[in-house]
Structures
1.
Amino acid sequence: MSVDSRLAGLKRTVAELLSGEQTTETVGAAQRWIEARAHLSSAAIFAELQRMISPRGLVEKSPTNTRPDALARIRDSFPDAVFLHVTRHPRANCRSQHSVYKDRGPEGDQAFDYEQHWRRRNRLCLEFGATLPASQYMLLHGEWVFEDPRTVFAQISEWLGLRTDDTAIDAMMRPEDSPYAKIGPAGAFGGNNKGFMANPQLRAGRIPKVPLAGPLDWMAEPAAGFDPKTRHLAHQLGYGWDDLPVPQDDNIQEVV
Amino acid sequence: MTSQSNDSVHAQMRQIETGQTGGVARVEQTDLTTGDITELFVKLAGAGDATATLRVPAQPDAMDLAIRDAITGDHPALQVGLDPQTGQISAQTPAWQSAMRGLNAASTGPMSHFAFWDQRLCAVCGDGPDAKIVCAQDDGQVHEIAASALRLGGRRALTHMQALGPRLILAVGDAVEGFGLFALSHADGALTLTDIADRGAFRFSLNALISAACQTDAGLLLGTAALGTPRGAVGHWGPELILISADGTWDLVMGQPRFSPQGLKLPASALTPGFGLPGNAAIQAIAQGMWQGHVQTFVAVQGFAGSPPANRDDLRPELLEYHGAVQLFVSADLQDWAEVPHRLPADIGCISALGVGADALLVGHEGFGPHTVPLSHVPLP
């Protein structure tokens, strides 16, 4: 990934905040704004963005920040930041990762241990969470967001001290209204999750149940099942074979 | 009378009931050679010292019963018992004898727990998928309901059964999913069993079971037992305090903030789980009593000292494995907690009951020997 493509999200954000829109021209202005601050740390730039949007708050959701050094820097730079640890069932997560990365490189992803990756990332988040005051860390089943988004959004908002009225929750149910819910302009192409940009609507519905037990079928030579360490951590995170909240509405669609 | 060596009798404090002028303790004694279980009733003076003891023989005579009645007379909770040998209910007071007969007649297997609830005597019969809850009134009328919703059997076992206003609260331990909490209610002549919270109140396997319960002014205060992984759980863990209010809803007193199907749960106390100390530990006992002119809540926390569970799927957590380091805490408002200093010995065993004496906290625990009263005093400053 080039430096330019990694900065696409930042350029789009700055363009939106400086000019109220994301065009080739405003992205150019954002590029100059960033270059003028090339001597600053990421934290200093983030703090400047925060000042620009105050009293609203910034949300940082880069998966690449789930590294010990990155999380520690965020905590040290923004001691009042709150952290939401979003989890996914290890089987669904490994299958999904495999489907995305299986064709990459001459040997595909056969050498990559998705199970260990899932375990490391989640252990890291839990261990990091324990360094925070309890009110600054919360765990959330990603599956539950799709199963019952209104309930989840209301509880997240309550935790953050935000509005929980129907108008506010209705807005959260429409991520497609976000100025970032589209492909960026030339000069800032990308800058968000590709799947989200291609289809930004919230797809609420029942998540197909997947078991914790059973062979790891994405592997070239499938193991008989998850390592006991993975099973224990999955249990701690609330994943088993019957592991999702029962949805209140039986008419909702299944989400794959 | 047969003589028994100290090592051959295991004693476990099961109940401490205190009042203004003293109290009564109930000790369960197990003959490790024969497996026979007998009860020891201990009369306590105001300071918590034992002033009389009665070991109830398997076939009590009239004098045994008279002494037992005299000792337990001021404490109705001790006047109905569950015979651990037969799994049948015994009631001393005439008021409960009709209910007792109805309950024993309706039972289809050994009873494991009983509770007084809304003028009824209730018990759970069986410990598997066919278990049922039977409630008998003082007129002998009996109602029963299948307990299949509790999913008893295997790694799931009933740990507590206690009345809370119009509901009977039942707790089921499960080391994989986390405990389940249920409420039994009565309407139109029928019993109804509903969920209060499942999956360890949405904290999953870390909340393996409810390990202590106490009626308080605010509701039913429950303590949990935390059980991590062989390599140690990560994150905020340790046991929690959970309060069930009279309306059947639950909230966190001390523990891990979380989202839940029952709403956002933020603890009343600023302490993290385990009173700020992560680790495998259990809230072993809770008691409420007067101290320094206020109603105060006392809690005993104890560390895990057994073998780490190799496979949670096969695990049925035993509270007796939580016999590690002891900490005692007190609070007047369930928000601010202070540690109570103590000099309890490291080998005290498993703590199983608390009582509040005139100037001491009474700590019931394990012991060995036919004449041992496993009760220690912690002076309250």
2.
Amino acid sequence: MAHGAQSDTRKRLLELFAEANGEFLSGQKISERLGCSRAAVWKHIEELRKEGFELEAVRRLGYRIVSTPDKVTANEIQLGLKTETFGQVIYSFEDVDSTQRVAAKLAHEGAPEGTLVVAEEQKAGRGRLDRKWFSPKGTGIWMSLILRPPIPPQQAPQLTLLAAVAISQAIQEVTGLVPDIKWPNDILLGGKKCVGILTELQADPDRVHSVIIGIGINVNQTSEQFPEDIRAIATSLAIEKGKPIKRARLIQDILFRLERLYRQYLTHGFRPIKLLWEGYAVSIGKPVTARTLGGVMRGIARGITDDGLLILEDEQNTIHYIHSADIQL
Amino acid sequence: MKIQEIRELIRLIDQSSIDEFVYEQGETKVHMKKAAAAVAVTPAVVSAPAAQPAPAVTVSAPAAPAPAAMPVQAAAEAPATEADQPAVSAAKQAKEGAFHQITSPMVGTFYAAPAPDKPPYVKPGDKVKKDTVVCIIEAMKLFNEIEAEVEGEIVEVLVQNGQLVEYGQPLFLVKPE
């Protein structure tokens, strides 16, 4: 009980600082607004400092927040989160083998739609075909979101394109950088990969149990932090922007846009998502190489179908519809 | 007009309640229209996208050369025919031996193993339980772990690793126990 009340005061204190928008708040004003003593205010300020908040204290002016810690805890993400369901339940970890594995287990145990699993570090982050995903501590966003869409399983792949659009929009909003999407859902900045999305489906033949969208974003890595063999093909938002990005803020914006597009998708289908996807698409009208286990196909990317398949026109002007392949530009 | 400006426009209109938008300046003309209304008129397309034979092609099963302008169905004939062959033999065997078929719930690539350098999930002779993962079907980077849904013994694997499979295509024959 005491603990709950205390964290509530903390939350209101953070809200006051958020309203102050970087300006000074006097200790007197804070104690009035929170209904606690000046000594209690000082105690809360000290606790914030221990958590990594940088606070400046000046006589007669009071306190102001210089910087907040770049953490991806449930508190940081939910403070100011504007969604109804996405991210309203959050499991956050310092480190985890893979957020995807944790989310799959939670989904199996009945976790509600919108449940988010997020970690500061993944010990066994993975991508397509079990390829390793480089996910070191505190630098990126490694998270998995549980959806329970009322759609037939064969329609579920469209959600991977939807996720790519929502994340691209959020990156644009938060950083001002305009990303490109490479089919189906790689997100690139300056031609280098900064986001990978891996989606897993649990379904009966006629019914989806859960769709788990795994999202890996390189946010604040420096180029030296990438292994040498991927430096030429990988980048981070901070490298492209030239300054660090607050990860919790980006997660909030991603959840907000994912939820909105998802609702739109359930009401209006894939068409509106397709148009947005094409707005970010980098490969359309360009020669691409599609690699599959079956072989290699070269051609011009002509767009995507209403189901999200890549339309590839080869040198004999034959149209091919690609369900799965690695695309090289 | 720059592509970024058009992107921004699409984004803004997407967020607005505007259904149609026309912009003209000099020789530039931009016309945007939301697809929501059109989609609502043909809900069948939205609810059952894979109902028609999926026109996907891999290099291992190239389509007969067809002019680019030909309708989707025409280009899809060749792979559909090829995909039917295992389905026919499987159906025959299933009738003869009363084997259970594990079928694909969606169009996509069949992966027999979790990674290229790993052994397959199952091989003929393996015993499976209802929740044993037998393969992965992947489309557009969405991975679907297929469970056996039946208890028994794998009799035959009907498709090749990396092969494109159709909706409902038999993947395994299982002798139920």
